[in-house]
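Problem statement: downstream parser choked on a complex file, so we are re-checking the raw output for the flavin-adenine dinucleotide run. The parser issue turned out to be on our end (a line-ending mismatch), but while we're here, posting the original submission so the record is complete.
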Amino acid sequence: MSRQIFAYIEHNDGAVEDSAFELIKVAEQMDPQAQVTALLFGSGQELEDACQHAASIYPQVWKVDKQEHSYPNAELIRPQLVNLLPADAVVLAPFDTFGMDLTPGLAIKLDSAHVSDIVGLDGVDGDTLKAVRQEYGGQVHTHVHCDLSGGAVLSVRGGVFPASEGGQEGQVADKTSDAGEVQAGRRFLEVREAEVGEVDITKEDILVSIGRGIEEEDNIEIAQELAEAMGGVVSCSRPVVDAKWMEKSRQVGTSGMTVKPKIYLAMGISGSFQHMGGVKGNPFIVAVNKNASAPIFQVAHVGVVEDMLEFAPVLTEKIQEMK
Ligand SMILES: Cc1cc2nc3c(=O)[nH]c(=O)nc-3n(C[C@H](O)[C@H](O)[C@H](O)COP(=O)(O)OP(=O)(O)OC[C@H]3O[C@@H](n4cnc5c(N)ncnc54)[C@H](O)[C@@H]3O)c2cc1C
């Protein structure tokens, strides 16, 4: 019998997040015969639109429509998932700020196994899932065996699995009453958008992003010249903001901005999940790093093993010549 796999789907403004396209691929890798069900919590028209979007990717969609879910709150959603999910369910969720909040407690409540931040699969052997995780900031891979027989909650790193192209005509089922009453101590108050600086990196198609490898503030000019030549702007990783070399509104990542460029040129950035968690929309990623085993090379489409301080001015010159 094929396994019951569920994917927790995050959505915004009536559209599912990129992770929805990746989680179905993870499920298919685990079990090509599985009937994968998308789980969506929200309220009103936005939820309805997101469910229709999810139905273009998943054969089955379960929706829970409650006013209290208009903002995702793991404390509210967790007990409702426990009411909804069958015993032995395998639940996939994105490993992002929300997924980190939701999944460990969900695994405890379901009394099932939990593996977080999965970056690869070595396959499923009977009831044993062989998953790959990373330790020490991506320097070491660990191969984890997880027993799926009693169910499992698995969180998956964004951007490392391929994305589905959709094309499904899935069915949406309303599971609102099955989810039970909403009870929680934690209340949603309001969304406060991060301040936008002089440049809004969330709207740019081309980002030249710099990390600790920039070494000192004066070197930022090198990146600015390259960004100008490419028709983009400079963004950065958190250490550059911590050093007060760039303003917070330029920081990409889970505690910074979420960007959706077409081209992401990452220079002197190791590729931590907190940084890459802010890079959405499957951009073309070019990484320049002098360490050939930097984790960023696992997600980059093009990798350049070079000193960025030498490479960037040469690239700027070449682009200017071509113009
Ligand atoms: C709760 C939390 C939230 C966080 N939020 C964010 C966030 O939003 N955004 C974010 O970026 N980080 C965030 N972080 C920090 C994150 O974990 C990493 O520490 C950070 O992303 C590392 O930045 P980096 O890649 O620039 O630096 P490092 O990890 O130090 O990497 C520097 C890289 O540059 C390379 N390098 C050095 N010199 C050169 C050179 N001359 N040429 C080429 N390559 C060179 C090195 O080989 C290395 O790979 C967060 C951490 C926590 C705990």
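For whoever reads this later: The pocket of flavin-adenine dinucleotide is lined by residues 211-213, 237-239, 251-256, 268-270, 272, 274-275, 278, 288-291, 294, 307-309 (CB under 6 Å).
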